[in-house]
Queue: 4 jobs
Job 1
Amino acid sequence: MSAFKKQQGGKYPVEPVKNGKPEYILRLFVSGILQNSVNAIKNINQICEQYLKGNYKLEIIDIYQQPDLAVSEQIIVIPVMIIKHPLPERRIIGDLSDVEKVLEILNCK
Amino acid sequence: MLPNTKKMVPALKLIKVETGINGFDEITDGGLPKNRPTILCGNTGCGKTVMSMEFLVKGAVKFKEPGVFMSFEETKDELVTNMESLHFGLENLIKKKYIYIEYAEINKDQGIESGKYDLEGLFVRLQNAIDRIGAKRIVLDSLDALFYGLNSKVLRQEIKRLFKWLKEKKITALITAEIDNGLLTKSVLGQYTADCVIEMDKRIFNQTTTRRLRIVKMRGSDHGINEYPFIIDSSGLSVLPLISQLKSQRLSDSRITSGIKDLDGMLDGKGFFQGSSILVSGSAGTGKTSIAISLIHATCKKKIRCLYCAFEESSSQITRNMRSIGLNIEPYVKSGSLRFYSSRPTLQNFELHLISIKKIIQELRPEIIVLDPVTNLMSEGINSEIRQMLARFVDFLKGENITTLFTAAITLETIKSNPSDEGISAMMDTWILVRDIEQNGERNRGIYVLKSRGMNHSTQVREFLITDKGISLLPTYISPDGILTGSAKLEYTLKDEIQNTLRNNRMKHKENEMERKRKILEGDIARLKADFESELTVLNQAKTENDLKEEKKEENKIEISGLRNNLKSSSEKSKNKNK
C-alpha cells in the first residue's frame, strides 16, 4: 500500500497488485471542486486505503475536463462511482459517505 | 411611516419564437416564449415526442435554428427510426449538424445511493450538447423519467435549478412530461416555474381517437383557453385553430355561374358571389349532387381548380352518375382541375376531416370546394362542437376567398325537429332549397332560393328537370290552386291551350264576319258610286249640249250680223259706184 498523489482531473497511477491484475477497478466521476465531489474523493480514498489494501485501480474523472466521457458513460448524477471490475458493472451514486453501503457493494464480490 | 408604494413596472411584452408547427403559432399568438422553458405535458401516446421533435425540425428547416434533443426515454436510433414515418428528414438534419440527439440513460444511476448527490452531470451534458452545434432550441424528453429512483428532494431542487439554468442560457426549451403516471403529478409539476405550460390529450370518443391541445398557462400573454383539436400525419402535427374574430375577409364582387343558366337567372341574373358559402338542401334524391356537379362542371371548364369532398358516394360513382345527365367530369379529374376527397365520415372525427381537407386546400389552392353532404359528418359528434368546427372552417374558407357549396339533407321541416340545422343555414350566404312537390299522385322537383345575401334573388318556385342534357328550370304555373308542376301542369297547360284555341277560333270567326260585312258594304258603296257616276255623266252631257247650243247661237248671231253688214257695205259700194 503506497501513498498516492491527488492530482486534479488527472488519472491515477496503477497500484502494485496481486497476480498482475487489480481486483477492483473503480472510476469516480466528479464535478471539479464542488462540495459533494470533494467529499467523494476524500471518502473513496479512505475506503480504498482502509479496505482495499492496494488491490484496486482508482480513476477520478472530472466531467468538466472530459465531458465526452460523461456522455459515453451516461453520467447524469454526480458524484458517481462506477465499479468496472469485478463484473457486473455497478454504480454507486453519492459522495460515498455511507461507507457501509459502499463496502456492501464492494465486498459482495 | 410612509405607505409602501409598489413601483409600477411596465408589463413587458413576451417575445415569442415561432415553432413552425401548423396551426400552433396561431393559437399561441406567435409561438413559444423565447429563451424560456415551456412544459409540454400529457398522457401516454398523446404526441409529446412528435411535437417536440417537430419543434426542432421546423426550427432547423424554417428558421435555421439548430436544436438539441436530449432524450431520457428512447435511444437516438430508436427515435430516428420512429420518426421515419414522419417525413422530417431527420437523418439529414443530424448530418448537417442542425439537430443533435443525445440519449441520457437515467436507469443506470438508480438503486444504490451512498451519500449526497446532485444532477451536475446532466448540466454538463446539456452544455456540451448545446455547444456542439450552437443550439437555439432544446428539448428534454421527458422530465418524468428523472423521477424514477432518485431522491425526490434532490430532484425537485435540481429541476428548479435546471429551469433557472435554461433561462440563463438564453435558449428556448421545451420539456415534456407525462403526468399522472407515477410520481410526477400536476401538483408537483406546478411548483416548477415554467413560463408556459401546454397540455396535450389523447382520448377515445365515439370509438375514434381524438387529440386535443390546450394552453394551460402562458405568462405575459393573452392566449386562447380553449381546447384545440389536432392530428398527426406524415407531415407532423396540424392544429385547427378557432378564428375568434371575423377576419377581415377579402371580399370580392365577382360572380360565378352555377352551371345552370336559369338558376343564375334566379340569382340576380348573375349567379353566386365569389367566396360566398352556399347551402343546397333538400330531402334525399332531390338532385343536390347534380346541382353541385353542374357548378363544378361549369367552373372546371374555365380551367379553375376545384375540390370535391364526397362523404356519401365514391368519386367513381359520382362520375358515372353525372355522365348519365350529360356532365362529363372525367377529363377534369385527369387534368387535375378537379380533385376528389372521398372519405367515410365514420373513419375519423369531423375536425380531422376538416384538417385533412385544409391541408389539401393549402396544397391544391382550389377556388371552389364542395362538401357533399355535410350532414353526414355531423352525426359523428356533439352538435355544438360540430357547429363550432363548421363555423371555423367556413371562416377559414372565406378568408381564402374560396367559394363553398355544402349539400345537406335538411329541409324546413327537419329544422323544426332539429334546431341545430338552423345554425348551419345561418352561416350560409345563399340557401337553395330543393323540394319535392307532390300533386295528383306525382312527385316533381321544385327549386327556390330561400335566401341570398347581397343580391336581388327571385322568390319564385321553379320546377326543375334533370334530363340527359343536364339540369334545366321550367317556369311553373301558378293557378288559383297553387303551384303546378308535372302532369298537373300539363293538364292545366292543355286546358289553357284549348281555351286559347277556342277563343282564337271565335275571334277568327268574328273576323271573318267583319270581313264579309266589309265586302258587302264595299259592294254597296261601289254600286252607289256607279249610279252617281252615270248621273254625273248625263248631267255633264246635258251641260255640254247646252254649251254647244249657246255657242252655235252666238255664232249664228255673228254670222247674221256679218251678213247684214256685208249687204250694207256692198249696197253702199254700189251706190258709190253708181254716183
Note: The interface with chain A takes residues 102, 104-106, 108-109, 111-122, 124-125, 127-128, 150 of chain B (CB under 8 Å).
Job 2
Amino acid sequence: MIEVNDVYFTYPTGVAALKGVSLQIENGEFVAIMGQNGAGKTTLVKQFNGLLKPTQGKVYVNGVDTTKISVASVARNVGFVFQNPDNQLFSETVEEEISFALKNFGFNEKVTEDRVTWALNLLSLTQYRKTSPFMLSGGERKRVALASVLAWDPSILILDEPTIGQDYQQKERLRQFILQLQTQRKTVIIVTHDVEFVAECNPRVLLMREGQVIADGEARHVLTNLDVITQASIVPPQIAQIFLQLCDLDLPKEVIDVYEAREILVNRLEKKIK
Amino acid sequence: MPIIETGKLTFTYPGSSKPSIEGVSIKIEKGEFALITGPSGCGKTTLCRCFNGLIPHFYPGEMNGEIVVAGMNVADNPTSDLARHIGLVFQNPENQLFALSVEKDVAFGLENLGIPREEMRKKVDSALRLAEIYDIRERPPHELSGGQQQRVAIASVLAMNPEVIVLDEPTSFLDPLSAKKIFEVIYDLNKKLAMTVVLVEHRLDLTARYADHLIIMDNGKVILDGEPREILSSEETRLIGVGIPKATRLYELLRSDGIKLNTRIPLSSDEMAGALKEALTR
C-alpha cells in the first residue's frame, strides 16, 4: 500500500512541483495519473519508489517511511519503468539487461536464469535474448525495460507513459497484461496522456494540476467531468464527447466505453422503432 | 500532378534481411491532407525519410524503385534542395531544437540558404505567427513546454515555405489539449495556405477527421489507400489492428445491430453525436 500524507516537494532549482498531495493507493489497485505536462505527475510517482523524498509531509510504502530507507530497498517492492527506455537500458544484451537487477538483489544463478526466461517469454522477447537492446525498435526497447523490472517481481509497478509510440495492438496487449498483473494483486500505476487507453481500461484516475490532485475517482466519473478535465488540459475520450453532446436526451452521462455506448443506444433506438 | 509519387519503392537497411518498405506505390496530390498509419514497424518512418531524401542520402542501404517529390527525383537531388520543397517534423521536438532563442531556431534553415536579411525577417515572423509562437520568439526553446517546442519545430519548417510538410507522430509527447491545438494549426495550414500535409499517426481518434486521404501500411507494404471513411469502416482495417476512431467504431457496431443512422460514416464525435441526436429525436 502507498500512503501519501500532505506531501510538498520543491526541486533544488526552487520549482515547487508538489503542493500538498494526500492520497492512498491500496494493494491491487490500477491507477492512472493524468494531467498537463509539468503538473507534477512524474514527481509524484518518483516519491513512490523513493527516488525523490518529500520536502515536507510523509510517504509510506507498505508501511515504511521512504525517508527512513534507501532507494534500493524501496525498489525491491516498487518497479519503475521510465517514459524513455533509453534512460534505463545499458547492457550489451537483452538477457544481461534483465538479469542485472536480479543479481544485485542477490538472487542465485539458477533463480536469475529462471526469472529471465520467464520475463522474456511473458513479453515475447525470447528471440532477442542475445540481441543488444539498442538494435531493437522503440516499442521493443520499452518491453525490455518492462521485462527487466517485472523479473524481480515487485508488488508495485509504475509505468511512465507506457503507450507512447505503441500501436493499437500493442496497447491492447499492454491492457491485457495489466489486467493479468491485477489478478496477481499487483498494484499498477501508470502516468499517461492517453485518454482513449484510459477509457478502455477504466482504472481509478488521479488528475493533477499545478502540483495538486484536483480529482480522484473512477475513470468514467473523472473523464466525463468537463469542468475538471479542462483544467488539467485533458480532452474527453471520444465516446464521452458523444454522450456529453446528447446530454439533454435523458441518456446516462458517464459513458466512456464503446460497447456500453452500443448497448445503451441499441436499447433506446429499438424501443423507438417499436 | 501529384506532389509526391512513388513507384514500387523498396528500401532495405544495411544488415537487414528484409526490406523496411517494399513495392510502395502511392500518389499524394497537391493540397491534400494525407494520413499514413499502420502498426509499429510497418515502415511509416522509413517512407517519411524517403520523402525528404534522408534516404538514400544519409541512411545507407539499398533503394529500388522511383520517388519524385515536387517534380524532383529524390535520388538525384541533394537534401538541401529538397528542403526548399518539403519539411519534416519529428516526434520529439527536443531532438530538433538547439538554438538559444526560438527565433534563431526558426531562422536557422534560412540562414543556410543565404537569404537576404530583410526577407529572412519577414519569413521568420510569418512562420512564428502561423505557429502561434510570435510572443515567445525571444525565449530559449529548452525552457518551453513540449507543446510550444513542437510549434517551434513546425515554425522552423514553415519558414522555409515548403509545399509539403511531413509530420511523424508530432504530438505523442504532448498532453491531449496541446496535441489538439497542434493538429488544428496543421489543419489550418492545409486549409488556408493549401499546404500539402503528410501526417504519420497511430491515434486516429485525434486525426482521422482532418484527412482526405488515408494510407494504411503493414509489414512494409501499403495495404489500403484511399478515402478515409471507406477505409476505416472496412473489416480489413479492423483486422490489421489499426485503432479505428471510437465514433466510427460505434457507428459500425450499431450498424451490425441493424441500426442505420442517417449519416455518412462518421470520423469524429461531433459527426456521430449529430447523427445520434437526429435518430433519437426523430
Note: Chain A touches chain B at residues 35-38, 137-139, 164-172, 193, 195-196, 199, 230, 233-235, 237-239, 241-242, 245-246, 249, 251, 258-259, 261-262, 265-266, 268-270, 272 (CB under 8 Å).
Job 3
Amino acid sequence: MEKPTNQRAWFLVLPVLCVVALSAVIPLMTVVNYSVQDILGPEQRLFVGLEWYRKVLRDPELHGALLRQLVFSGAALAIEIPLGVALALGMPQKGLRASACLVLLALPLLIPWNVVGTIWQVFARSDIGLGGVLVNAAGVPYNYTAHAFDAWITVLAMDVWHWTPLVALLAYAGLRSIPPAFYQAARIDGASSWAVFRYIELPKLRGVLTIAVLLRFMDSFMIYTEPFVLTGGGPGNATTFLSQYLTRLAVGQFDLGPAAAFSLIYFLVILLFSYVFHTAMNAADAGRSSR
Amino acid sequence: MARIELRGVAHAYGAAPSADDDYALKPLDLVWDHGRAYALLGPSGCGKTTLLNIISGLLRPSAGALLIDGVDVTGRPPEQRNIAQVFQFPVVYDTMTVFDNLAFPLRNRRVERGEIKRRVEEVAALLELTAELGRRASGLGAEMKQTISLGRGLVRKDVAAILLDEPLTVIDPHVKWLLRRKLKQIQGELAVTLVYVTHDQVEALTLADQVVVMDGGRVVQQGTPQELFERPAHTFVGYFIGSPGMNFLPCSIEGGAAVVEGRRVPLDAGACARAEAAARAGGGEILLGVRPELVARAAPGDEGAIEVEITAVEDLGRHLIATARLGERTLRIKLPEEARGEVRAGDALGIVFPPAWTTLYVDGKAVPREEA
C-alpha cells in the first residue's frame, strides 16, 4: 500500500523540535563553539579548528583517567548486575516482608550523592570510621587516604552499596511480571532451579537487564560527586575519573577550549558504548526469533 | 496407564478453614478411568482449576487423598507424578528451539540422547511440528506454542494423564476447532487419559466422553453429554448446559400430577409422590424442568395440552426460539425452522410437556424416576 504524503504533518512535530532545540541542541552547540576557539578574553577569540581535539586526545593524563574510568565502570557492572539479580531472586515475593525488603533496598537510592560520599568518607576512615576500624582490627592494614588500592576498593564498595539496589529493584519488577504458569510448567517438566533460572527467568529479564546495564554504565561512566567527596581523586591520581579531570580542566584551570573538546569526546564515547551495549543485547534477542 | 481416584479431596486456600465457604473445593469423591476424555465444566471460580492443580501436584489438597493407579500420590511433587499439564496461556521456553522445548522434560529426567531424539521426532510427527523443529520457539504463533506445550506433555513415555486448563482460550476461533480435533484424535490414538477444563459447554460436550459439571466447589453431575442433556441431575446443570437453558417452572403436586399455574401436567405418579415427600421433608419448592428442545407442540385433541401465549420469536436460521407465557411464568420453546410463519408473537400455542423428558426438582436436585 502506498503511503499518502502529507508535509503538513511536520507542523505537529514542531513544538517538540523547539523544546529539544532549547534543551539539548543549543547548549550542545555552544560547547561545540568553544571547542574550536581559543578564548583569550571576553572580546578576544581565535578560531583554532581541531587543535584542542588533537591536544586533548594526546593528553597522557586523560588517557590515564579514561583507563581508570573503563576499569571502574567494568568492575561496577560486573559486580552490581549479578549481585542485583541475586538479591532480586532471594527477596520474598509477597506480604509484609516483601514491602520491608523493598523499602530497605530503596534507602541508598534516596540519599543525595554528596551525602553518600560523606557517609563513606567517615565510615571508611581508619581512625574513627566503623568500617575502617573493623577492617584494621581484623588484621588487614587499610587506609584509603594513603593507599591507591584501598581507595579503589572503597570507591567501588560505595558504588555497589549505592547502586546495586537499583539493579535489584529493576530485576525484582521483571521477575514479578513472569506469569506463574511458567514456573508451574517447569515444575511439571521436572526442571531444576538452575534450569528455571537459565531458561525462564534470565530470558524474561533480558529487557530490564538491558535497561539496568545501560543505566549503570552511563551513570558509572559519569561518576563525579561521590569520589570527589570521598577521595578527591587521590591518593595522587589513583581515583581521578574522567568527570573529575574534566572539571579540573574547565573550572580549575579555566581552559574552556580543551574542556569543551573533552566534553564532546566524553559525550561521544558514552553514546558509542551505550549504542554498542544496546545493539549487542538486542541482537542476542533478535538472533533468537529470526532463526 | 492411569486410573485417577479422588477420595474426599478438598481444598481451601486460606490457612485455617472453618466454614464451608472457606473451601474452594468441597470434599469430593471421583474415579476416572484410563484412556478416556473427561471435561471439567463450570463457571469461573467453581474450583475446576483448583481440582486440576491438585491432580498435577501443583497444589496439595487440604484434605483427602489422590490415587493414581491405586498408589497414593497426595504428597508427591509434580515432577514425581506422571502427569502433564497444558496451561491457559501457552508456555514455551523462548530461548530454545522447538526441538529443545520438546526435549526439555526428557533431558531433565536424564533420558539417554538417542531415545530423546527418537521420542521428540515421534511426537513432532504426531503434532505436525516436524518442519518447525529447528526454529526458535519465541517467534511462533499462539496455536503453535500451545501445540508445543501439549507436545512437552506427550513426549514423556510414562505420562499417565494430560491435564488441560482452558488451553484454547487465547487461540483464534478459526484454528480452535482444528486444534480441538487434533487433540481428540491424539487422545484416541494414544489412549491417554485426558482431563480438560473449560467453561465452554460446546468444547466440553464435543471433546469429552464424560463431562463433570462443577459449581461452587462441588461436582454437580458427572455423565455423558447425552445424560447431561436429557437427565440433568441438578437445576444448575439444566441451566448451564444447553442454549437456551432448561425451563424451570414452580409447581405443586395434586393427585399424581404436577400443577403449573393451575394447569395439570400428567407425570409419573411415583415421581410425583417422591417429590411431594421430599418437599414436605423440608426441601421447599418443587420445580418442573423441561428442555426447550423437548417441549412438544400439541396435536389437536392431545391429552394434557396446555395453552401458552407466545410473546416473542427469535429466528436463529436453523431453528426458532419462542418465548412463551404460561400464567405468570415465562418459558422458552425451541422449534424447527418449519414452524417459521406458523408461530408468531401474540398467538396462542398448545404445548405438551412429554412425561419422559420432564423432571421434577426439589431443592435443586432431580427427583429420581425410579424407586431408589
Note: Chain B has a mean pLDDT of 86.
Job 4
Amino acid sequence: MSDPVPVLRAAGLRKTYPSGDRTLGVLAGVGLAVAPGESVSIRGESGSGKSTLLNLLAGLDRPDAGELFWRTEAAHQLSLGELTRRRARFLGMVFQAYYLIPEIDALANVLMAARLAGPVGAAERERAAALLRRVGLAERGHHPPAHLSGGERQRVAVARALMNRPAVILADEPTGNLDERTGDEAIELLLGVCAEERTALVLVTHNAAHAAKTARQLYLHNGQLA
Amino acid sequence: MPWPVYLALKQLFPTGRVSFFTLISVVGVGLGVALMLVSTSVMGGFGHQIERMIIDTQGEVQIRARGLMEPTPELEKTIAAVPGVAAFAPFAQGIVMIDHANHPALPVIQGYDIERMKKVIPLEKYIVEGSVDDLDDDSVILSSVLAYNIGAHVGAKVSIYTPLMLKRANQQELLLPRVVRVAGIFRIGHQQLDSSTVICGLRLMQDLYGLRHQVHGYNVRLQPGASPDGVAAKLNLALIADAEVMTWFESNADFQAVLSFERNMIFFLLTFIIIVAAFSITSSLLVTVVRKTREIGLLGAMGGRARDVAICFCLQGLSVGLAGTAVGLAGGRALLYYRNEIVHVIARATMGEGTFVKFYQFSSLPAYTANRDVVLIIVFSILASTLAGLIPAWRAARLKPVEALRSE
C-alpha cells in the first residue's frame, strides 16, 4: 500500500518574470502532487515554463505565490539556504547537459553527491560503485567525463542523482543531448532505477514517447498543468 | 575530507596531474618568494659581514673618553666587573701623514696594546701579508689599499709625520719624522678601513701624539650571548662622566640606517612581484569561475552551500600560495647555495672575474638569512595568494544556482 502523503506537493505556484516594462506570467497557479515512487512526466511547448516549474519544485527559485511541500515540510517557508541544505538529501537532479565535474572521474562524480551531503565512508563508496554497476558503467568508473560518450555521461548523472537515496528525482530534458536510441536507453534506465529505488520521478521532456513511459503524463500550457 | 577541500585539490591537481593554471600560478608565486629570499639574504649577508667587520675592528662596545683618559687599574677593575664583559683593550687614535718613496698619504692611525688587543680584535685573520706577531714599537701594519697607494710592502720603511711636529715647530723645536718598518698588511673588506688605516702599538701611538700614558678609550669584547645594549648601559652607569659608552650599532648608526633602508626598500619593491603573481591568481580564478559557472550552479543544485563554494575557491588561492611558497623557498635556497658559481659565471661573461673582484671588492657573495625575514616572506606570500582567491570566491558564492545553470 502506497504512502498517502505525497513526496512532493505544489499548490497554486505562480511565477512571473519582468520583460521590458511588462511582466511575463510563466506559471499561473500550478498544482501538483507526486506520490512516493511515482513517475510523472511534464511536457509542454518551448518557453511554456517547464524548467521554471522544475526549479521551483527543486527549491532553486522562489515562487511569487503558492505553496510547496517536500513530504510534510513547507518548503516555501524555508530560506534558500535552508532549502540548499535539505536538497542534498531530499532530491536528485538530472540535467540535459549532464554537468559532470571534468576534473574527477565517473566514480568520484557519483560520490560528489554524497560529499555534498556529509562525510564519505566505505558505505558511500560501495553504493557509488553499485550504482555505476547498475547503470552499466562498472568498468568505466575511473574514466574522466571527457573519455565517456554522451549516453555514458548521462548514466553517470543518473547514478549521481540517486546516490543519496533521494525521495524524488527531477529530470530536466535528460535526453535532449542524446540521439534517439541512446535517449530511449537513458529513459528506460532512469525509470528502471527509480522504480527499484522507490524514488519518485518528475520528468520534463519534449518527447511524447518518453513521457508515455511514465505512470502519469501532464502537459503544461498557459501556465497551468493539465 | 570536506568537499570544498576535495574539489579545490581536484581542480588544482585533476586526476594526479598539475593543471596549467596551477603550474603558472605556483611558478609566479615561487619566483617572487625566491627573489625575495635571495635578495634579502644577500643584503642580510652584506649587513652581517659589515657587522662582523665592525665588531672585529672595534669590539661590540666602545668606551670613548671625552678627550683623554688615564688607563688606571681602578678604571680597568670597574670595567672588568661589569657582567658580560669578556675582554677589553685600550686604544689611542689620530691622523698622521705617512710617506714612502715620496708617496704621501693621510691615514687614520690606531694604536693598541697588542697583547690585550688580540683578545678583543682578531686582527690576525685579516692579515694578508706579514704577521701581527712582528708588530713592535718600531713597526706598523698598513691597510691593503694604503700600502698599494704608497707602494709599501712588508719590510719597507715608512716615515710618519704627526701633528706633534707642528706643535713643537711652533715652540722652535725640531721633531723628526718617525721611521718605522711595515710589519704586515691587512685587508678587512671594508672600503673605508682598507683604504686609509695604520695600526701600531699603543706606546708608538702615545709617542707620536705625546699622550704619555693616556688613551682615547677601550674596545670591549663581550661574552657570547651578552647584549651589547645591556652591557653598554651598565658601563655607562659604572664609569665616570668623562667617558661615553656606545655599542657597535650606535657608533655606526648612520651606516646601519642606510643599510636597513636599502634592505627595506628592496623588500618593499620585491613584494610587488608577489602582488603581481597574486593578481594573476585572481585573474585565472575569475576565468575559472566564469568557465565553471554551470558547475557552480550544479553544486548549489546538489546541496552545496554558497559559503562552501567560496571556501573552495579561497582554498585554491591558499593552495597555490602554499605550493608557490614551498617552491620559492626551495628555489631560493638552491640559488643561495650556488650563488657564488652564478656570480662567477656572470662576472666571466661580462667584465671578467678579476675586474669584478677588484671593482666590487668581494670574490664571494655573502648571504645571511634571518629567520624573521623567512617568516615575513612566508606570511606575506601565503596571505597575498589567499586574498587573491577572495574576489573569485565572492563572485562564485554570489552566483544563484538557477541563474548559473541557465548561463551559456
Note: Chain A touches chain B at residues 55, 58, 60-61, 81, 84-89, 92-93, 95, 97, 99, 101-105, 108, 112-113, 115-117, 144, 160 (CB under 8 Å).
